[in-house]
Design brief:
The protein is an alpha+beta fold and 322 residues long. It has 9 helices and 7 strands; from the N terminus they run αββααβααββαββααα. Strand 6 and strand 7 form a beta hairpin.
């Protein structure tokens, strides 16, 4: 037999064993199955909600299961170990069976789906996704989904953190399939980031912190040694003078600019001196013109008086001429 066919046959045998145990242990609440090969035989680890029903009185039920597993499925020297599920509300297979049982009892699919999601999230799960498919309200098949929290549909987070359970509800109108996927409460997603303080980081990674401190102490003297030659080596006296020269040129430039300002001030003084002289020259003629006006007034008065005297003289002459 080829190696591929061998692996396929082994997985088929494990799937058939799981289906058989799901039927036999349905009353006890089947929570999962794990088959491991050991040097002493085959270890079958069974997780249930109520382990007492699997073991039975004086272990009679578990003995019967052991003989069936060895004879029907061909496992060598099977040893069944029954473990109790700590939190059944977070187990996907148990919740799928409970949801299917509630549908068989007559619950409406929406009521059953929402109540299951609420119970799972209140129990501490990080996410939940429930799918109910089949003839829910009529002759035509339909699918209803109920989800809450964080859900991963592909990739490594789905394989590691998501647990899947499947159950079947047998109804009058047909079979309804129930699929439940639950993300564990301890799941750490790639987006979950927490930054630690220095004290917390020192507690978690003491070796790394000590190494970083040692490197810092070693680098400090090296940097000091590199800084000393930088201070002693450069003798930049000449460049300093060269740099001072432009400063002097800059200082001389304002001096050169100030000289024309002095000339301008001299011209301003000359203009100021000329201005009062011109003002005085203008004021003198005004003083001379004032008496001239008085003369004109005195001259006008005598001119008017003789005009009045001449008028009667002319009138007399005319009379005499007549």
């Amino acid at each position: 037999m080829a190696s591929e066919k061998k692996f396929v046959a082994e997985n088929v045998r494990r799937v058939l064993l799981k289906e058989y145990l799901m039927k036999e242990v349905s009353r006890a609440g089947f929570g999962g199955l794990d088959v491991q090969r050991t040097p002493m035989g085959t270890a079958v680890i069974l997780a249930t909600e109520r382990p007492g029903l699997v073991i039975g009185r004086r272990g009679q039920t578990i003995k019967n299961l052991t003989t069936v597993i060895e004879e029907r499925f061909g496992f060598e020297n099977p040893q069944i170990e029954v473990h109790e599920v700590e939190n059944p509300n977070v187990n996907a297979q148990i919740m799928a069976e409970k949801l299917a049982f509630s549908l068989e009892r007559g619950w409406h699919f929406r009521r059953a789906g929402h109540s299951s999601v609420r119970r799972i999230m209140e129990s501490g799960a990080k996410g939940c996704h429930i799918t109910i498919a089949g003839k829910l309200t009529g002759q035509r098949k339909r699918t209803e989904k109920f989800k809450d929290g964080y859900i991963k549909f592909c990739g490594e987070p789905k394989l590691i953190f998501m647990s899947k359970g499947y159950a079947v509800a047998k109804m009058k109108q047909g079979i309804i399939g129930v699929t439940v996927e639950i993300m564990r409460a301890d799941a750490v997603l790639p987006s979950d980031i927490s930054v630690l303080n220095k004290t917390e980081a020192a507690d978690v990674l003491p070796d790394l912190i000590q190494k970083a401190k040692a490197e810092a102490v070693v680098e400090a003297p090296v940097e000091a040694a590199e800084e000393k030659p930088k201070k002693a080596a450069p003798k930049k006296a000449k460049p300093a003078k060269e740099e001072a020269a432009p400063v002097e040129a800059v200082a001389e430039a304002p001096a050169a600019e100030e000289k024309p300002k002095k000339k301008a001030s001299a011209k301003a003084k000359a203009v100021k001196e000329e201005a009062p002289a011109e003002a005085a020259a203008e004021e003198k003629p005004k003083a001379k013109k004032a008496p001239a006006k008085k003369k004109t007034d005195s001259e006008e008065k005598p001119k008017k008086a003789p005009a009045k005297k001449k008028a009667p003289a002319k009138a007399k002459a005319e009379k005499e001429a007549e």
